[in-house]
Specification:
Oligomer: single chain
Strand order of the largest sheet: 1-2-3-4-5-6
Radius of gyration: 15 Å
Number of strands: 8
Structural class: mainly beta
Number of domains: 1
Shape: globular
Order of helices and strands: EEEEEEEHHE
């Protein structure tokens, strides 16, 4: 695992964190979350996120994995970019909205559960839909 990239936006209630897990077979996990303050409260909430598993496509000048291109390969990605929570499965398109996904509430999936599911998939060979507990609907 690479060191997490913590970016404090407004101390202490607004922050962003990006974490990469890099595997020898050319795959990686990337989790990114942004948290912001609840209005009127001294608490924060997750407001945007992206959880990605797929091939490594891009490295920085030091050799560390960085976020790849928007049109790069994907095994599975769950994110809120552009149009609210949605899922990409084995391709960039289509974006599967929550109404086309059974068994998985995208708003309740956190980074830890996603990472654990990917490790289960890698160690067992079980399908990603099975380990994440979802089925795509027509």
């Amino acid at each position: 695992m690479q060191e997490p990239n913590w970016e404090v936006l407004r101390v202490p209630l607004s922050w962003s964190v990006e974490v990469f897990f890099v595997f020898r077979d050319g795959k990686h996990i990337r989790t990114w979350e942004t948290h912001d303050k609840f209005a009127g409260l001294q608490a924060s909430r997750r407001i945007a996120w992206a959880y990605h598993y797929g091939d490594i496509t891009t490295r920085d000048s030091s050799g560390l994995v960085i976020q790849g291109p928007a049109d790069g390969p994907v095994d599975v990605r769950i994110d809120t970019c552009t149009s609210g929570p949605h899922l990409h499965y084995q391709a960039q398109q289509p974006h599967y909205p929550p109404t086309r996904i059974a068994g998985l509430d995208l708003t309740q999936l956190g980074a830890l559960k996603f990472v654990k599911a990917i490790f289960r998939h890698r160690s067992s060979g079980k399908d990603l839909q099975r380990v994440l507990g979802f089925k795509l609907l027509p």
